[in-house]
UniProtKB/TrEMBL annotation:
Heme b binds at residue 198. Binds 1 heme b (iron(II)-protoporphyrin IX) group per subunit. Binds 2 calcium ions per subunit. GO terms for cellular component: extracellular region. Its cofactor is heme b; Ca(2+). It comes from Eleusine coracana subsp. coracana. It is found in: Secreted. Its EC number is 1.11.1.7. It catalyses: 2 a phenolic donor + H2O2 = 2 a phenolic radical donor + 2 H2O. GO terms for biological process: hydrogen peroxide catabolic process; response to oxidative stress. Disulfide bonds join 39-120, 72-77, 205-242. This is Peroxidase. Residues 1-19 form the signal peptide.
Length: 345
């Protein structure tokens, strides 16, 4: 069901992506038909490759969306997270917070890039591939179809320190998240909407272990069997599923236990029923902070003009804060095709 909040989720997730990384010089605006002359079949090629990858491995959608967010939230949507470390320097890819990013997501981009190189070599940027792949996967999993502005250039730098410092962690308080997202121009409503991307995929038990094991009341420190805001049956089920998580850190649980492979608003509905694992999104949805209380709206509406205007405003705000030295487009996405920190001709 294409719900009002679902549209907000997409608008918020793509708002900085829409103009986060302008072409070198920063003067050419992004546009959906950027490759109309140089690589007219780019979107179709990417869609075909990504659809095949998603059918092969249904967890691809969640992985790509996560990589997309991790890329865009650190310096803009510039594909810096795709760069692999080498003998000279570590990259953003190897930041501690990025170590759990799924290989299938990177493989999807590699496959798309290879297919594009067969048709129009050295034309489509890796940042645009990741942006388009995310849009395709949202649609494939039941979400809306939306135009993706194109023309980004790829970063010439990639630092693990930046990712660890700028990306939100699962144990952050709501106030800290509001401050962090606010510093990048996001409202509270957009913060909550972005957390809705967790409707796809899973979380490792270590991310919410403090809610189901050795929990203590936040006010008086009294021990509790689990976080009392959780549904008791759900909490006990997680305790059973995650009992050996210290021995096996790969043990995980779906974020949305009802429709884990569908891009819908069931994640928010589950949170209000106490059926959420990670604590931060739960608090974000459960606390009364103005518009964030709309998180489980079930009234289907088409994209509103206000949502579109908000996305356009966010695009302009993000563009103004991004450096213009990005021009890495080449044959591969995991390396600097012309060397780091060196502009192309």
């Amino acid at each position: 069901m294409r719900l009002s909040l679902l549209v907000v989720v997409v608008a918020a997730a793509l708002s900085c992506a829409a103009a986060a990384s302008p072409p070198a010089g920063g003067k050419m605006p992004l546009t959906p038909d950027f490759y109309k002359q140089t690589c007219p079949r780019a979107e179709r090629i990417i869609a075909e490759v990504i659809q095949s990858k998603q059918m092969e491995n249904p967890t691809t959608a969640a992985g790509v969306l996560r990589v997309f967010f991790h890329d865009c939230f650190v310096g803009g949507c510039d594909a810096s997270v795709l760069i692999a470390s080498n003998q000279f320097a570590k990259s953003e890819h190897d930041a501690e917070i990025n170590l759990s990013l799924p290989g299938d997501a990177f493989d999807a981009v590699v496959r798309a890039k290879l297919a594009l190189e067969m048709e129009c070599p050295g034309v489509v940027s890796c940042a645009d591939i990741l942006s388009l792949a995310s849009g395709v996967l949202v649609t494939l999993t039941g979400g809306p179809r939306y135009p993706v502005p194109l023309g980004r250039r790829d970063s010439l730098s990639s630092s693990p320190a930046a990712a660890d410092a700028e990306l939100p962690h699962s144990n952050f308080t709501v106030d800290r998240l509001i401050q962090m997202f606010g510093a990048k121009g996001f409202s509270v409503q957009e913060l909550v909407a972005l957390s809705g991307a967790h409707t796809l995929g899973f979380s490792h038990c270590k991310e919410f272990a403090d809610r189901i094991f050795n929990y203590r009341d936040k006010k008086d420190g009294k021990p509790e069997p689990f976080d009392p805001t959780m549904n008791p049956s759900f909490a006990r089920g997680l305790q059973g599923a995650c009992k050996d998580y210290l021995k096996d850190p790969t043990i995980a649980a779906f974020n949305d236990i009802m429709t884990p492979g569908k891009f819908d608003n069931m994640y928010f509905i589950n949170l209000e029923r106490g059926l959420g694992g990670c604590s931060t999104p739960t608090r974000s949805c459960g606390r009364t902070r103005g518009p964030s209380r709309s998180c489980s709206s079930t009234h289907p509406t088409p994209p509103s003009s206000s949502t579109t205007s908000a996305a356009q405003w966010r695009s302009s705000a993000c563009s103004a804060s991004r450096p213009a030295q990005r021009e890495r487009s080449g044959r591969r996405c995991d390396t600097y095709n012309h060397g780091p920190n060196m502009p192309t001709n």
